[in-house]
Design goal:
Blueprint (H helix, E strand, L loop, with lengths): L2 E2 L6 E4 L10 H28 L6 H30 L3 E3 H34 L4 H4 L2 H27 L3 E2 L2 E3 L6 H5 L7 H35 L3 H34 L3 H26 L1 H21 L3
Length: 319
Amino acid sequence: MESGNDSQLSEFFLLGFSENQPQIQPLIFGLFLSMYLVTVTGNLLIIVAIIVDSHLHTPMYIFLSNLSFVDICFTSTTVPQMLVNIHTQGKVITYAGCITQMYFLLLFSGLDIFLLTVMAYDRYVAICHPLHYMSIMNTRRCGLLILACWIIGVLNSLLHSFLALRLSFCTNLEIPHFFCELNQVVHQACSDTFLNDMVIYITAMLLAVGPLSGILYSYSKIVSSIRAISSAQGKYKAFSTCASHLSVVSLFYCTLLGVYLSSAVTQNSHATATASLMYTVVTPMLNPFIYSLRNKDIKTALKILLGSVTRSRSIDSPS
């Protein structure tokens, strides 16, 4: 196989996780199309409910609406391409398409992590410093926190993408995955990848372990504050305000950890690709259910929203 640095001649083959099982391709197509539609619909409902209900125009729900938007974009980065490949029985993705997909995947996965961290800080301020909550989490600070998340996410994605662009790739490369994951793409290069590997490890430590430490610290303080509350009702009310966020954080980090543990323990690329489905497809789909089932305010807002839509349809329909 000939190598070179003319990236325009390079094509990648996304082998997916069922390349040897064509008989189940229609089932996989239907399953992931359904999951994608549920993800987009669920997260859109959360966004619309927050916009429509003025009672939800608070920092916590502003961050949640941003998280829902990012989850839609995160899933849309991978699933539509995968559905097209399954439907057309094609697995080819261009070099430019692969790098673009990798960039947006890094961007939105990073934003997921940063927004979850900001939401943990918001819950920490609300429970540990309730009297100063509105002065600390004012509109300006919320905007700056969201802007910081986007800036760090964009810079991180640009860094890895530019480093990938400097690599030389062989022609007709096979990626045992259903999307262009950073580590898989880098390890397909014909040139030296030492710099890329070092940057991947360093940024993973800074941008994954760092936020996780912040989340754990926030919740350690939250638990201490809740334990200091004398009444059981007060403890329950304080905990219920962060239960949904804690569930989402646990789901995201546990699935992410499971992916990298599975890739470290087993050399089976299909097992790793299947595990990756958890945080790229399943987690964004489950987030709206977690917030709508565990959060009373969101549940009420969704009922009002769906009720108003139903009433407007009944009025518009002919008698």
